[in-house]
Amino acid sequence: MRFAENTLLGAASEILVLLGESSENARIAATALVQADMRGVSTHGINLLRLVAQRIEAKMLTVPTNVTTVSDDAATAMLDGNDGLGQVAASHALERAMDKALEFGIGMVTLRNTNNIGALGCLSVTAARRGVIAIITTNGNPSVAPFGAAEPYFGTNPLSIAIPCGAREPLVLDMSSSIVARGKIRLASLSGQTIPLGWALDETGEPTTDPKKAMKGCLLPLAGPKGSGLAMMIDILSGMLSGSGYGRGLKSFHELEGKTGVGAAFICIDIRRFVGKENFGRLIEEYTGQIKVLRKQPGFDEILLPGEFESKKAMESEEHGINVPDAVVKGIDEILGKLGSPVRLGSL
To answer: How far apart are CA 254 and CA 328, in angstroms?
Structure first.
């Protein structure tokens, strides 16, 4: 089924408010969830509302979200999400980092004690649209084996970097440090499909193509030692430096194991302090233009820039509606019914 953006925003906001979130925070979180669906990152879309409801009921996620300041000194700050909605805490942290970048040229804000902060590309692109370079990292519960290990220690620990491109949509890198996102393993498990060899290990540390065995085992890092090293650095920046959890100290957002203890780091850079905004825009335009006209490999119709696929997907969603799987629609309607709302996505 396809839905208009405002329809999904309304349903998501209503659920969050009925769960105990403030209307303003509900709007922030709902926007983050719907934007993820619009950009084709459905693992971080409105389907997460089911998990949010479960965690609130289990008292493992606290609403209304209350983001507090631990420290604030010139170009740096530390915030505490107090176990509330990660999308809300991340929005506050990014705003603070952007403000500091515009004041000091660069700003870095760390965030502790939060939950899943959503699709990082949706966050970083917000800063880039305001003319600021953004670098965002976050950690997660153990699901990836360090290079050479046969058991998990790192999370999928994603990284996003967004670069302004003047009037065009920003360049947006959004990637996990594992060879594949865990959501794809979970999806393959639910749909009864196999996974490629080299994605994951089973509980005994042996390579597997069975997603159910992979879910009990662990993922492998991207490009071996490179992804392993990247996951480690992201864990340190996001968790250790923020005073939050790291390594085995983190809990899964998808299981009711306890408070997740997730941390994140936000770095923003004001282009004006370097080569200048107009000059940088001209350089980026020339740079990306040269890449787009390079000779293509056989089978490639177009050379896509980082974030271009997601940007095109968002435009398609805006024009034709956001595609939401029937199972997700059913899940959202079940939550709405349980909370006493008369709204149903399935009847819209």
So the answer is: 15
**Contact 332/46 with Cβ under 8 angstroms?**
yes
Return the domain boundaries, the chain: 2-179+220-275+312-347, 180-212
Domains 2-179+220-275+312-347 and 180-212 agree in fold: no
Q: Which residues of the chain have pLDDT under 70?
A: none
User: Does residue 314 contact residue 39 with C-beta atoms inside 8 Å?
Assistant: yes
Q: Whose CA is closest to 119, among 46, 51, 215, 187?
A: 46
CATH number for 180-212 (one of 3.30.60.50, 3.30.70.1140, 3.90.320.10, 3.40.50.300): it is 3.30.60.50
Q: Could you give the CA distance from residue 154 to residue 147 in angstroms, rounded to a whole number?
A: 10
Contact of 78 with 243, CB cutoff 8 Å: yes
CATH assignment of 2-179+220-275+312-347, among 3.90.1300.10, 3.30.1370.60, 3.40.50.1000, 3.40.50.11600? 3.30.1370.60
Residue type, 112: R
Are residues 101 and 269 in contact, defined by beta-carbon separation less than 8 angstroms?
yes
Alpha carbons 66 and 74: distance in angstroms, whole number: 23
Put simply, whether the predicted model's pTM sits higher than 0.70 gets the answer yes
- pLDDT attached to residue 146: 98
Task: Quick: pLDDT tens for 261-299.
Answer: 999 999 999 999 999 999 999 999 999 999 999 999 999
* Contact criterion met (CB below 8 Å) for 45 and 36: yes
> pLDDT tens digits for 6-61?
999 999 999 999 999 999 999 999 999 999 999 999 889 999 999 999 999 999 99
**Cα–Cα separations (whole angstroms), residue 165 to 79, 128, 131, 287:** 30, 8, 8, 10
